[in-house]
Amino acid sequence: MKKLSPLWLVSLMSVAPLYAAQVPTGTSLATQQVFRYNNHSEPSTLDPQKIEENTAAQVALDLFEGLVWLDGNSNVQPAQAESWKISADGKRVVFTLRDNLRWSDGSPLTAEDFVFAWQRAVDPATASPFADYLASAHVVNAAQIVSGKIPPNELGVRAIDARTLQVDLEQPTPWFISMLAWPTTFPVPHKLVQQYGEKWTNPEHIVSNGAFVLGNRVVNEKIVAKPNPHYWNRAATVLTQVEYLVVDNAVAGYNRYRAGDLDLTWVPADQIKDIQKNLPGELRIIPRLNTEYYNFNTTKPPFNDVRVRRALYLTVDRDLIARKVLGLREPASTLTPPQVAGFKPPVLDELNQPLVQRAAAAQELLRQAGYDKQHPLKFELFYNKYDLHEKTAIALSSEWKKMLGAQVTLRNMEWKTYLDARRAGNFMLSRQSWDATYDEPSTFLNTLQSTNVENVGHWQDSEYDRLLKQAENSLDPVTRDGLYSQAEARINQQAPIIPIYYQPLIKLLKPYVGGFPTHNPQDYVYSKELYIVAH
Questions:
Q1: What does the pLDDT look like over 118-154, one tens digit per residue?
Q2: How far apart are CA 146 and CA 301, in angstroms?
Q3: Is 60 exceeded by the pLDDT of residue 8?
Q4: In the prediction, which pLDDT does 6 show?
Q5: Residue 269 DSSP one-character state
Q6: Mean predicted confidence (pLDDT) in 220-232
Q7: DSSP string covering 33-102, please?
Q8: Nearest one of 106, 113, 97, 111 to 189, comparing CA atoms
């Protein structure tokens, strides 16, 4: 491991000032600076500590701002913090906040707002879906607080003064700073949270600290944001309005895009060839650290039986779904995408066998588990409403009926109710996806740890937990990578999930939108970077 200098400093003096729209000289800007974004689903919440999905995170990235942000190339840039120092042993980070930071109501924003937010994130009473996030970052006492053993005020974070935030880690975590771009670590106005409780994000109460503020919200239709007059870099924000529209059907989104109602939308699978032919300059295929998979509820029959899980795991034609049913995706054999930094996927020979051979092995597993033509396997496939997810579900159910004689029922729900049902364990086999919140395998693999709140299938495997704990305690990247590979092999053997495909960002973007990031594999889009060119 590279030896750290006694004390090093990251500040605006040592990095390019990449923190706002960079409009090229001579660019003619449109009179109307409005960006209309198909956000796909109604966000489940706007509360940073309760966000778990990208539709909510996208809005939060505009309304709120953390200590750092990720630029268009996924590089860490200073945000609310103007600089930070890391100690020689890598276990203490001291952040210096910008001078005179304000909330959108004009009140002062201080280091105490970060302390409150971080303590709130790990507090079991908050029930944050990312409660384990700071434990994964190795913040002192985070894991013990999440498990209810000690109070939140013992978290290793404190305000030295109004502009100085100190974070203590249990061990050096090389990717720690990049983790702070995710909303769980964003500050919240502690006085308003204490005053209004769950209702603090209602339009009539909410204040934020990002480049934009909430204008109005029409549930299941759209959210409108306008520039925050108290944002520290307000002068460099070009857009005057951002609209996040809820269009949960890719075909409907495509039609509205063609009609000029949207500037950015998802691409329907059936239209890919037509788009490549007629709108090639507007199709954006951007690398992304994302895996689409199905999650077994391992606490209930029939999926408390590893033989049944593996039978389904083996009989998925990943190539068919990724390349033909949907298109432009890559078949997935592991939970962690191969492109994640420092990850070398294990070779899973059986997934390279012909499908007919895998089907024979799967049929034998089901026979051993007590299923045959007279007693067929029956279960329900659960997913949120979206045409691409429905195509995948139909393809899976068809394959399993053909190869295994399984009787599969399909069930879907709107996004928010789907999340609630999944969290409550009200499913048998549920569609899920994971986007990297930082570029390291643990962001994916931690979600299956026995105690992780994201482990909605409640898979319990001591060997898997042991491998991740060992990786967590290793400072050698080669050793960590080997342990991560073993953890993926364990997923293959026990099949708590079925990886289906790796998904890049496949979107349509109007050519007059400037500043859109095309090299950020974590899909972080900040509207403060965008501008509309005259057209």
A1: 999 999 999 999 999 999 999 999 999 999 999 999 9
A2: 29
A3: no
A4: 34
A5: G
A6: 97
A7: -EEEEE--S--S---GGG--SHHHHHHHHHH---SEEE-TTS-EEESSEEEEEEETTS-EEEEEEPTT-B
A8: 113
